[in-house]
Amino acid sequence: xxxxxxxxxxxxxxxxxxxxxxxxxxxxxxxxxxxxxxxxxxxxxxxxxxxxxxxxxxxxxxxxxxxxxxxxxxxxxxxxxxxxxxxxxxxxxxxxxxxxxxxxxxxxxxxxxxxxxxxxxxxxxxxxxxxxxxxxxxxxxxxxxxxxxxxxxxxxxxxxxxxxxxxxxxxxxxxxxxxxxxxxxxxxxxxxxxxxxxxxxxxxxxxxxxxxxxxxxxxxxxxxxxxxxxxxxxxxxxxxxxxxxxxxxxxxxxxxxxxxxxxxxxxxxxxxxxxxxxxxxxxxxxxxxxxxxxxxxxxxxxxxxxxxxxxxxxxxxxxxxxxxxxxxxxxxxxxxxxxxxxxxxxxxxxxxxxxxxxxxxxxxxxxxxxxxxxxxxxxxxxxxxxxxxxxxxxxxxxxxxxxxxxxxxxxxxxxxxxxxxxxxxxxxxxxxxxxxxxxxxxxxxxxxxxxxx
Length: 453
Fold this sequence. Notes:
By secondary structure, the chain is mainly β. The protein contains 3 helices and 21 strands.
């Protein structure tokens, strides 16, 4: 059997053979995947978790430009179930050593994260103290790494200064196959946050800013996709064909924390049935450039109160793109997303309120090889008049700019200075709340220390 392996600088490989045996194809693909990973470590600059670094034997910069933003290798590592390992494992095989029945990491894949922050708001919020310190803003423990040759985890438990409990979780099964000479990655994801399983930095779970102040005023309204984190459980299937076309379908069911389980008459916003989430994306890498264009969405029906009666129905449809370019002195990245949401609220068995809401975000980042980075982002939300906004106009229209500087003196340590400037806040620029407060009064200076160990 003849096998031809061709490696390119963009990490794409081709495998040609004169045998059509499935086993030969799979062996070739597995070898190509490992070779790709090894190559991309040298050309690249998941939250950057030391448990993954210990497991793979690679620096955090292999998978991240500035954590949690992923490189091509980081995306491949996640799609392949967090299972790539370079450490010693405990193995057991059967059938003449062809079938692996056990492959345990020699140490548990554990990590921790600590965030502490300072927040200054341009004008004091009535009855609250300004210049607040969070210590910690977050302290998280992770079980993150390979469990079996095809199953890996990203499981986060967090203390946020008030409570300790489950945070983001993504448990994956992944494998590879072939269609002719084309590679196919396929897998299953069990997660608790629509988009936490995504590998691009454009959707709510991982987009810029990756961290923000918990003490600062923020606009009253956001999409349903941004508000289901840790309140649902979803099981989905995904595939990446020929390193080009990605598709995923996941269905979610309510799994609310701090609420009755099973849901009962005291519950609020419980999903009726299931909420389907979908994701399609095209990606292409050439020379020093990478581009992704995609669409995503979720449709969710919730009981307003209890587990029967009036409903609140949401449909989010989004579009996103991501562009990256490697530079001699660092890297450049551009991200953008648009989410259009329609909402129907039952006020009685025969009457409804129909609302529209739109959320747009774009950001561009420049990262230098010396650990310095700068990002500028723009955000804007618009939509129908909604009484839940609680402002003078009851409109959710807000927009502004986010400026951020960061420094990574070590690859697992980041210091950030962020400034958020509002031009419009909850439908107004001045006196939006009826008490004389201006949008610019909510401008926020945020300083963060972020350690992973």
